[in-house]
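[agent] plan:
  1. take the single chain provided in the ticket
  2. run structure prediction with default settings
  3. attach structure tokens to the ticket
  4. add a short note for the reviewer (M.T.)
[agent] executing step 1
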Amino acid sequence: MKEMKGMNAVKEVMLAVNGTLMRGLELEKNLLNVNASFVREAKTRKAYRLWSICDRNPAMIRVGVDDPLAAEIDVEVWSVPLEGLATVLMNEPEGLSIGKVVLSDGETVLGVIGEPLLVRGMKEITAFGGWRNYISSL
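[agent] step 2 finished; step 3 output follows
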């Protein structure tokens, strides 16, 4: 999180996105509409799994480094003005929320994660390493 010099108030947060909020995809406009800016491509720590929710969007869940199916998942990191974060979250599909995500370089940022109930009965796509790889295989 970035702070303004001499002030304690957080003005923007780093947000890792792993699906339709990514550049060029369906919900990227939700980030652009709150004046968010793309920072970089990254991967998560090898502690996450990924599911397709009816091929409309993914849901990433942190499972831990001891899970044999855990993988590094492709994400994009965006800088989001704090006042826009709630707007982005409220426009996410049901069952997706904001939590902490650990990147492969050890940095912890906020990120879009799925609720465990959301993935029940859905297709696991962890082996693809990310949403873009999965949708390009369809």
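[agent] step 4 note for reviewer: The CA atoms of residues 16 and 77 lie 4 Å apart.
[agent] ticket updated
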